[in-house]
Amino acid sequence: MTGQNVSQAVHIGELGDQLRVDAIRCSAASGSGHPTSSMSAADLMATLFTRHLRYDFDDPSNPHNDHLIFSKGHASPLLYALYKAAGAITDEELLSFRTLGSRMEGHPTPRLPWVDVATGSLGQGLPFGVGIALAGKLLDRLPYRVWVLCGDSELAEGSIWEACEHAGYEKLANLVAIVDVNRLGQRGPTRHGWDTGAYARRMQAFDWNTIEIDGHDIDQIDSAYAAAAASDRPTAILARTTKGAGVEAVADREEQHGKPLADADDAIDELGGVRNVRIDVRPPANETEPYQFGEPSPLRLSEYKVGDSVATRNAFGEALAALGAARPDVVGLDAEVGDSTRMQKFADAHPERFFQCYIAEQQMIAAAVGMGVRGWTPYAATFAAFLTRAYDFVRMAAVSGAELRLVGSHAGVAIGQDGPSQMGLEDLAAFRAVHRSVVLYPCDANQTAALVAAMADYPGIAYLRTSRGDTPVIYGPGEEFSIAGSRVLRSSAQDDVTIIAAGVTVHEALTAADQLGQDGISARVIDLYSVKPVDAQTVRDAARDTGRIVTVEDHWPQGGVGDAVLDVFAQGAEGPMPQVLKLAVHGMPASATPEEQLRTAGIDHQAVTEAVRSLLRR
Amino acid sequence: MTGQNVSQAVHIGELGDQLRVDAIRCSAASGSGHPTSSMSAADLMATLFTRHLRYDFDDPSNPHNDHLIFSKGHASPLLYALYKAAGAITDEELLSFRTLGSRMEGHPTPRLPWVDVATGSLGQGLPFGVGIALAGKLLDRLPYRVWVLCGDSELAEGSIWEACEHAGYEKLANLVAIVDVNRLGQRGPTRHGWDTGAYARRMQAFDWNTIEIDGHDIDQIDSAYAAAAASDRPTAILARTTKGAGVEAVADREEQHGKPLADADDAIDELGGVRNVRIDVRPPANETEPYQFGEPSPLRLSEYKVGDSVATRNAFGEALAALGAARPDVVGLDAEVGDSTRMQKFADAHPERFFQCYIAEQQMIAAAVGMGVRGWTPYAATFAAFLTRAYDFVRMAAVSGAELRLVGSHAGVAIGQDGPSQMGLEDLAAFRAVHRSVVLYPCDANQTAALVAAMADYPGIAYLRTSRGDTPVIYGPGEEFSIAGSRVLRSSAQDDVTIIAAGVTVHEALTAADQLGQDGISARVIDLYSVKPVDAQTVRDAARDTGRIVTVEDHWPQGGVGDAVLDVFAQGAEGPMPQVLKLAVHGMPASATPEEQLRTAGIDHQAVTEAVRSLLRR
């Protein structure tokens, strides 16, 4: 049957069995994987690929392609079996499943050119899909569709309901969630079992179109996809399926999750043996070009006068508005705190490229990732503290290799009265521990503006930390600041000690250096605005020249500026290690003025001078 | 009117105005705060305190007390005004709002004995309330009620829908969400404005009882509370309110969020001036004692034979089941991966104290915190990678000073084929950066069992990291392991170098030490199973004795074991710093066998021997 064009035939059921067989085969070859979770969705996907998906496998970057996301990423054997049936990969590559060096990873990642986003942390695929669908409707303005295969278990994740709320409210008719209701989770029955009505009621309440079907009835599946295409709202197809469908030994059985079939050969026989049915997936009709918001123009950042006082969050908002004017690919996302983060300045300047995600940080990050899939350049901002809400999404964005610019405002105890719930005190640690991330923490307005622009082209996840209160402008307009840079603000040939700071503590360090200077102690001061990567050479030079380093940061003692400095000396540095003293926030803060907070936390200029003196006494 | 018993009178409206006045007064005194968000909910709370709340302010630990959570924590001025009206605090303390040292923090925390949980990160109060309500229904088996005041904006958070799903499914009739639908968020109108029906439809779909009312009509409020008490399901009271109600200059106006009133004196006059109405909140009727699951008994941990191979996740499950037998206060929570984390062993042994939260990690953590409020000893487990999903909840649990035991399985690249989405590679960094946390990472089964027991009484957040694959048992049964400890596994007077490892890399370190020994290189090996706090003395001794340290960990390079070791030398250590070389995971892993993963990541025994040799060549 090699090469038979099933898209013209009715043998979709046969293709479904081939997909099952291939899922069983590759899982058996690897000795691991999720064949039963693949088998339940095989007919759903066979019908989609044969009759409804519009995709050019020879040109994955075609802007008119539909998008398919396996939110249940553990069904990767099914996805790879589909790729094989579509002629995108060979049977040999399929059977390299889960082996070293193979693109056939345990859960799909964009190492495969047809995969938009990495999945495997459940409840994320639909939110990412909402992002792509938003891009399709409101940015690209193209009619591509976004198909998301969800598991039933993952509908327990709150992020799914953030996605449902956003998609329902925006009437994303280009979005279809295909829910594989196979009733069995990792360790037994799901909460709602085969009650597809329970899910339908919930999604209808969020203004979705819902269709309940038998997920193994090709005609019902086909009709549901057609109805979804005709809907003016997002559609959820709630498909009752059987986990392990087609093989009696595993069908609808507990304790068959996430393991190869015990008797793969018998199962393959039961399914009719190995086939080689090919699907000719129909490519999209080429239509209009993606929409563009005008032409690029030179960047004109706001300029701040040295000696003025300006909050870095203000400089961020103004810089992003300016960047949006210069670059029509820049978009902004807010989680209903734009008035505080100053994302509102971008919203006011570029309302068509601004997305209000309301208080749903996970969906905000997912939407940004989804827009990035389509080549847009998203900046997403909320309080640094509340980005912790979306940490798993950031983690998975890194697995995707996504390009993402995140801005966390209200960093540290310096926010003052609002108290610890609003203080970002772990954000440096969290973002430094993201693969290939960049972490930037400016201390003045011109530096902030320069870094907002520098982030735009970073090919990974770039995080900018901003401050609530005004800080003195110490750098002139137009000074250049690059990722991995630093600034030596005080320096002499006779420096006794080095103070390394970033953000608000730079100003404390400068005051301390002045005070120490009056006592004849010469302190070098480094503004380590790039917390990751660190300007290791400047730190090493300081260690060599002064032998003593005090670090000071508005952050918990773990994982921030101090640890970034120490790490320099664990990376193969030659010569003696310096004496290092780390100042950071140790106690749980409460309410107080910003000045009281810095003093109480032991990270103000007085704490710095005392630390320097204690280090010099050793 | 001092001391008038409003609970008998009908002057609830007058009390509402007093609460508004006091919210305005304390915000004016501090120059910050959220009076308008307090004013919208004043009548709702005045009615609750006067007629429905059962609470003994003189005995906050009374097990029969109702629980009141301000999920909209920024309405703290209202909460404190209520405390004043109830006679729990003085007017003077009220007016210390948001000042250094005051208990009247910007957002409520359990520094106040009547506050169960810290709020201020929106969307968390209801999930915490679900935890307390679960405790009331299924653990304590007492009729106390849980009242949660929510904002409308926060209903966009996915965590709210995780809470609704859990509460609806469990038919938590003891839970009432009072939603203050004032239609204005931080930066403008909310998504659904005053459409209380939009919220009602959604919550009904999640099987809640819903009641839509005018939130300023005392009779409607009163009837709604009465109806909630009679419901056999959780109830949401969706109250249409006016932000800034009672003061025309701010009522229902945008740009009045989170700031004191411009003219407080006029506003207070408009509201009828300062009053001193007292509420006699009715204490609970004393009823039966909280339920107990039997009597404590001696702990009998499983014993593992040295030389056997056992996965630490298995040892965790068995130890927790044993701990549950010894301690009737221990409860277990799962996010539908109990089969993998081995929480299932606890579930099988103690089904009445086991809570299946399905794939909703935020709600799982929140439920654990809520049960902890009532004195239960919760252990919650999922994959280490998926605990990132609940990082904001862990952060806020630390602000609450909660006692919480978290277990993250499937740590690091050592899991093998499943790939990066399932690998916890940032968990050490994330959990080390939690205030007062403890981070434990055992390498063998007996050590795991001992640490599971040691965690039980830690008065803060204790995190245990477990591994998927089998590891050799190297410690005898009954060996003692304590928080802040370590084990020196190889040591001599002539050690040339120290290798510091934890978890799976301990075994790599031992193999490396053996290989090095054959070449006449003597390596000390430290099992740093307590990653926070670190056994600083043992690390310092090693630095003094050997001068060279190699750290090796199955984690990103940031924030883990290596940084914990470096930090020892930044905390006022005397003497020369050692040479340190950190081995950790640098590249993004894909699928491979566990052995291939360790080798590819450069953290296996061969990488350790090479690192030692390179350090010795310096």
TrEMBL record, chains A, B:
Residues 310-473 form the Transketolase-like pyrimidine-binding domain. Pfam families: Transket_pyr, Transketolase_C, Transketolase_N. GO terms for cellular component: cytoplasm. It is an enzyme of class 2 (transferase). Coiled coil: none annotated. Its EC number is 2.2.1.1. It comes from the Bacteria. Homodimer. This is Transketolase. It comes from Phytoactinopolyspora alkaliphila.
